[in-house]
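note to self — DONT lose this again. spent like an hour looking for the file last time. sequence + predicted structure for the chain T wanted, 276 res
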Amino acid sequence: MADIGKYNTLSVVAVTEKGAYLSAGELGEVLLPNRFIPENCKVNDKLTVFIYVDSAERIIATTEKPFGQVDEFVSLKVKQLNKMGAFLDWGLPKDLLVPFNQQHTPMEEGKYYLVRIFLDTTTDRIAASSKLDKYIDIWPADYQKWDKVKLMIGGKTDLGFKAIINDKHWGLLYDNEIFQPLRVGKIIDGFIKNIREDGRIDLSLSRSGEGKVNDFADKLLAHIAENDGFSPLHDKSSPELIQRILGVSKKTFKATVGNLLKKDKITIEKSGLRLK
């Protein structure tokens, strides 16, 4: 069965003057307009398309790629406001509606908001909500310390940034452990630092100790390689410069350099590091 608001791989059942008709199970035959049909398209070809309800209230297919699909969190910009709510730019001709009753705080035109895209199963209309807590898992998280996870930055707090873990749980990144610029909606790898007795989760953008050094080693080697095999960073470089260029503390930088020296991957020169 094909799903509205998601990508589907469907078979072509007819090619007409209007476009190609695709077999979409219970949704029937869905039109892919001419402008989206690939060259030499024919019956029985399989096409990957996104299905949504257009401005004329028709279920339609497109090869255009929206910025997010149903059941995903995504950061989107408000294009306009009207009596129905806020309309977000999500990469398709028909903007994405956030009704007033789905806004955590009143939205403002021109600003970005983290939302969850959902399907109204009564109307088959795709909409979005900034009331994120109802989409976060209420059950205790089953993570182990230093598990690697996917994070989506959710917003600034007094202590740092809250982030959505694996699209399921809230966690917190502390300001004094962040060494790179973050913005709402950014997707980044992180690690479970601690699960507190109250179930709240502390996060880190790098593992501690040996794990942190190993995680950063590949990034440092890539940095040197991208600069023609030489980096001007060295043990006298300021912590601020290292943080700005590499996004890590000077302590992690020095430990990683020592580790790579032992592995004979780099050499230290007076003015920097050279790849072997």
